[in-house]
Amino acid sequence: ALPAIVKSFNQLNAEDQLALLWFAYTEMGLTITPAAMQAVNMVFAEKNLTQIKQMPALEQTQVMCDLVNHTDTPICRTYASFGTNVKLGFWYQLSEWMKQTIVAPIPENYQLSTKASDLLQAIRKLEGGEQLTVFQKVVINMGYASTSSTPK
Ligand code: 45D
Questions:
Q1: For ligand 1, which residues put their CB under 6 angstroms from it?
Q2: Residues 66/70/71/72 CA torsion (nearest 10 deg)
Q3: What's the CA gap between 54 and 90, in Å, rounded?
Q4: Model pTM?
Q5: 10 with 141: CB under 8 angstroms?
Q6: pLDDT tens, residue by residue, 33-43
Q7: 68, 18 Cβ separation under 8 angstroms
Q8: Cβ–Cβ < 8 Å for 28, 73
Q9: Which helix (H) or strand (E) holds 122?
């Protein structure tokens, strides 16, 4: 069931969470049209996205791990203030840049842990609408909000 999937996701370490998101999202071929993206007001995220784009590779990966770990950094604080669609749009943009190698990609031989690949398998079996719900629930919790920094 969905809540159990989201809960297990949040219990993975940061590397597994990022890698799983990447595999789940890229292989599902969820098509996001330019029109759909235009409906999202990405202005709020542009400064951070540009900053990340200009960082060295290791820092790019670190920023994404920080987001998953709810670390208290300026980018994590700004991220927490985004609406759900801006958060999704933010990850969408990073994944596009990873495909174009503008942002550091996942190593080719990267192996998910057993727990994470079981979870990926469970996510694969969901229907599209449920997969979207999983992505929403997962990205909503990322970043650092001083009031609620732990995933629920
Ligand atoms: O070396 O209605 C490891 C909108 C360690 C429009 C690593 C939408 C090893 C409105 C950590 C693995 C478009 C918003 C390295 C809807 C190592 C609307 C790095 C939907 C380098 C429905 C790992 C949008 C890394 C949606 C860096 C559904 C991993 C968007 C990075 C969904 C992973 C977007 C990334 C998703 C994953 C994007 C960037 C789920 C991105 C996922």
A1: 15, 18-19, 21-22, 25, 30, 32, 36-37, 39-40, 61, 64, 85, 88-89, 91-92, 94-95, 98, 104, 106-107, 110, 132, 135
A2: 130
A3: 15
A4: 0.90
A5: yes
A6: 878 888 899 99
A7: yes
A8: no
A9: helix 114-125
Q: Which residue has the tokens 């940061």?
A: 14
Interval 50-100: pLDDT, tens: 999 999 999 999 999 999 999 999 999 999 999 999 999 999 999 999 999
List the Cα angle 74/142/121 in 5-degree steps: 145
Residue type, 148: S
Distance of CA 93 from the midpoint of ligand 1 (Å): 8
Helix (H, G, I), strand (E, B) or coil at 99: helix
Give the pair of three-digit tokens for residue 84.
Answer: 């759900």
Residue of minimum CA distance from atom 33 in ligand 1: 22
